[in-house]
Design brief:
By secondary structure, the protein is mostly helical. It contains 19 helices and two strands. It has a two-stranded antiparallel ribbon with strand order 1-2. β1 and β2 form a beta hairpin.
């Protein structure tokens, strides 16, 4: 694998590890050096990517540049009017980090030798997913059997209530490098990639000499990791994606449909058995969680819906320019301690920018993903990511959005060459030849 591709993977892992490194450094009294290490690398990679793309000739790039400038400049202007310029720059940095990663990665994928790229990427996802599950499951089992070790891994502060289910009594699977929702999203994105290829692009696996059983095993581990994180929003991603996979033209035959249905029922049965075992081991916490969710009385679920309802009622307060800079979302605790928070990425943008700048930001994001669009699976990924965005403010989580961008661009790199090869492959001739 080339050095440029290794840089992409290193930045992905570095971003996901940022919270863990910050906690680790804090326990020994060292400052957080992650931004000083990661951000210059992202900027340099983005500049390199621009040099490898038709950045100043394509209409898509022109639209991206115009809309990005269109929301960044007024945002900073408003921040300076509020005497919060430093805060404004910090928030703009959060918004732009996924942009920088996307442009740099797209340029690297387009410019380097691409013949071995699909196989290298798919093998990375297999090893990364399986290793992540092994580590997460081992840490989770250790935390459940030796609760005192939580202080060593997570620091002396009490973990937020989001780390627990059943009204704050049973711990969800997470890691020092990421909370349960972020970890669940990573597993959901991995499962999306494996299942999407397995259900719609099986011939790609034959060309790459990778066994479908290997992909299926990795998908099952990803789904298991997702379930152990108890991330309902991330689970919605797969609930939307799998039917769309099956509706993809040419992806499903009657025989394949029967196999997928049978496999799904077997997996569901296995999950029910495991749930019963875990429920018995946890003194009924799984049953309590299911009852709370099916009755729509789970405290976390109620909090999600209540924050969205409150945001709609307060629309007149933030519609024009948003709330004062540094008072929006979970990052506000760093600056003002006032958190106008809403569990919805779309409303969170309007909270911070107002309706007009928020619309420009949304258009910039659409233009960004349009520049890397290569295959229908990428569109399914974006559609499937909408439900999690409706339930969590991922717009302020650069690590989650960077991983989404990585999976999106990896799907393009995996499948664009495959599509081109099918398009240029010689067709069989069925003409009758004279005897």
């Amino acid at each position: 694998m080339s050095k440029a591709r290794l840089l992409v993977i290193a930045l992905v892992l570095l971003t996901l590890l940022s919270s863990f490194i910050k906690t680790l450094f804090g326990t020994v009294g060292l400052p957080n050096v992650m931004p000083a290490l990661r951000d210059p690398l992202l900027v340099g990679m983005a500049f390199y990517g621009v040099g490898q793309l038709d950045f100043f000739t394509s209409r898509k790039w022109t639209l991206l540049l115009g809309t990005t400038v269109g929301f960044v400049v007024p945002y900073l202007f408003v921040a300076m009017l509020e005497d919060r310029a430093i805060v404004g720059f910090y928030y703009i940095r959060i918004y732009l980090l996924p942009f920088l990663f996307f442009i740099g990665t797209l340029g690297i994928f387009n410019s380097t030798e691409r013949s071995d790229l699909p196989r290298a990427l798919l093998r990375f996802f297999i090893h990364w997913n399986n290793l992540l599950f092994a580590i997460a499951a081992a840490v989770y089992a250790l935390l459940q059997t030796v609760p005192s070790i939580r202080t060593t891994l997570f620091g002396p502060d009490l973990l937020p209530s989001a780390w627990y289910i059943s009204g704050g009594t049973w711990m969800r699977m997470g890691l020092p490098l990421s909370g349960p929702n972020t970890l669940g999203l990573v597993f959901a994105l991995n499962a999306f990639l494996f299942l999407g290829i397995l259900l719609t692009q099986k011939t790609l696996l034959l060309r790459l000499h990778i066994s479908p059983r290997t992909i299926l095993f990795s998908a099952l581990l990803a789904v298991a990791g997702l379930l152990l994180s108890f991330s309902r929003s991330s689970l919605l991603l797969l609930f939307v994606a799998v039917p769309l996979f099956m509706l993809t033209p040419g992806a499903m035959t009657f025989t394949k449909f029967l196999k997928v249905t049978f496999g799904g029922l077997c997996m569901l049965g296995l999950l029910l058995v495991l749930a019963l075992v875990v429920d018995e081991a946890s003194n009924g916490f799984i049953t309590r969680w299911v009852v709370l969710n099916t009755s729509l009385s789970d405290p976390s679920m109620v909090g999600h819906f209540r924050s969205i309802a409150d945001a709609m009622d307060k629309l007149h307060e933030y519609m024009l320019w948003g709330y004062p800079k540094g008072t929006v979302g979970p990052k506000a605790i760093m600056f003002t301690g006032i958190a106008n928070n809403v569990e919805n990425s779309f409303l969170a943008v309007i909270y911070d920018m107002g309706l007009f700048l928020g619309a420009l930001y949304g258009l910039a994001v659409a233009a960004l993903f349009a520049t890397g669009y290569r295959n229908r699976l990428q569109l399914i990924l974006l559609v499937s990511f909408f439900p999690p965005c409706f339930l969590l403010p991922y717009v302020f989580e650069a690590d989650a959005l960077i991983y989404l961008a990585f999976v999106y661009l990896a799907l393009g790199a995996l499948l664009s060459d495959h599509a081109e090869q099918k398009a240029t492959a010689p067709r069989r001739s069925y003409a009758l030849h004279p005897a």
